[in-house]
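Thread: "does anyone have the structure for this chain?"

Original post by V.I.:
We have the sequence but no experimental structure in hand. Need at least a predicted one for the grant figures.
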Amino acid sequence: MKRLTILAIVLACFATLCLGSSRSRRAPQMIIQLTDPNLEGTVSLEEALARRRSVRQFSSEPIKRSQISQLAWAGQGITEPQRGLRTAPSAGAVYPIELLFAMPEGLFVYRPADHSLMQLGNQDIRNSLATAASAAESVASAGCDIIVAGAVRKLTDRFKNKARTYMHMEAGHIAQNIQLQAVCLDLGSVTVGGFDTKGVRKVCGLRRDLEPLYIICVGYPATKSSTETAVDQAGAAGKRAALIIGSQNFRDEELFETKRVLDAAQVQTVIASTKTGVIQGTLGNVAEASIPVNRLKVDDYDAIIFIGGPGATEYVRSPATINMVRETVRKGKVLAAIGVAPTILANANVLAGIRATSFLSERDVLVQAGAIYTGFPVERERLIITATGPPAALQFGRAIVAALAGR
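Reply from O.Q.:
Generated one for you, tokens below.
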């Protein structure tokens, strides 16, 4: 009996050691060594100050790695290695701020000591981040979202009740540096201070001691001027579009934000579904479908638009819907889908070789259908337009208007 007891203890200890070692074998975190910052720019400080403006609409062109390097260095780069002093001043040189970069490749934290980025996650969180921010379209469409997060406790012992003030001041210094650097790189930027702190903390998986203070959206400015937008709206006026929603649980923002843009351009819209009458969205808002989907005639419309949400799944394998999608393409009409709805297009086999995007959960379906999945907020190739979800709804609507205007 004694021997059995000893054996059991030995086996338990061995198992504990094995479990401990297996838990410690975490997948190595990817480190991106950034290129050395350029210290001799071609834009003067005065010119950068004069040109700095808030840019809220971005193109889908990705930001270069060298540009990320400059932005990171401008925000927190080390300028005096011996003392570890950085580009932005910090009370007592404590440096309570961390910079996180949300990019298509994932979420990264900047490490000033060796001027590198360490990957914290491999998912593109920009859309999720946008849902927690007031400037949702800017956050979702930016080539990079820089989250400025601070740990006030690092300052508390030394500066007491002034700690939070000093942390906020430092965040302001950093934001200004990054925005001026963006100007010098021919990039646009906008700072976002209105967001749900808990939501941003959760999306980014921030440590308990870190508090999100700022989101800085950076990217290539959208090329359209206000004149071009006006031309698009004038060119789309009088065109007809059918917005197709599920018989229940459509995604509210995807319908109403898209429709608002179309209405502003004087596009005549109808809402269609498998049933007519009042239909409730996932957020509790209601819309009224005035025409059954099976009575829609593609010839009567210039655009057929599928709205996402859980209810859209009823169209995914519908033979009648698949025929409608194919007819829309064949007759040269605008075909658009947002959120999970691009899966409808994928199942109709109209996305082969087409650059497309969707809600992330539908990526594999699009790829299997031959689409070139980009993950950008909005994609347009010829007359096929796709979008990722609610944060991209306004941009989605504008792309439809431009397509209807023949641009």
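V.I.: this helps a lot. The two ends are 86 Å apart (CA to CA).
O.Q.: and The longest helix spans residues 2-24.
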